[in-house]
Write a structure and sequence with these properties.
The protein has 158 residues and is mostly helical. Helices cover 89% and strands 0% of the residues.
Length: 158
């Protein structure tokens, strides 16, 4: 196994250890779902590290098709993903950190503030969408040139 994979596994292990022992340093509400979530995340993270090449191939194929649709459609798609991701992270933080459910959060915020929060979330989602486009393009090009280099190396060795 490559050294890079071992480093990722060690970093993931340290992160998992911090998440497991986090309730000892601070108050965590709803500990049972918290630990179930952490336990489910660990094998997912290990699988992502171990089969990175498969994920890269799948990304290369899917992004190759998606980039043909153009910048605007992908911007909307990635912005929506970013907005949902940020909302879910805030909800998870409030649920485990303060013990609030999403319904409690919405009911305690006035409609004016809720409107501003949604607009701000959409604005950050737009920024996320722009950044995601450029990052995915960069990743796609990196994979493309790695594949091209491998093909050239194979041709040279013959």
């Amino acid at each position: 196994m490559k050294l890079e994979k071992w480093m990722k596994i060690v970093i993931m292990g340290v992160g998992a250890g911090i998440l497991i022992f986090l309730p000892l340093w601070g108050e965590i509400y709803h500990k049972t779902p918290y630990y179930i979530g952490i336990i489910l995340l660990i094998p997912l993270a290990i699988g992502r590290i171990m089969w990175n090449e498969k994920f890269e191939e799948r990304f290369y194929t899917s992004w190759g098709k998606a980039r043909e649709q153009g910048f605007k459609i992908n911007l909307v798609r990635e912005s929506a993903k970013g907005s949902v991701l940020m909302a879910v992270l805030v909800i998870i933080n409030q649920y485990f950190g303060r013990g609030f459910t999403p319904i409690e959060i919405v009911s305690q915020v006035s409609k004016g503030i809720l409107t501003w929060l949604i607009l701000m979330l959409l604005g950050f989602g737009l920024i996320y969408g722009i950044a995601a486009w450029y990052e995915k393009e960069k990743r796609y090009c990196r994979i493309y040139f790695e594949m091209k280099k491998q093909q050239e190396d194979i041709c040279k060795s013959r």
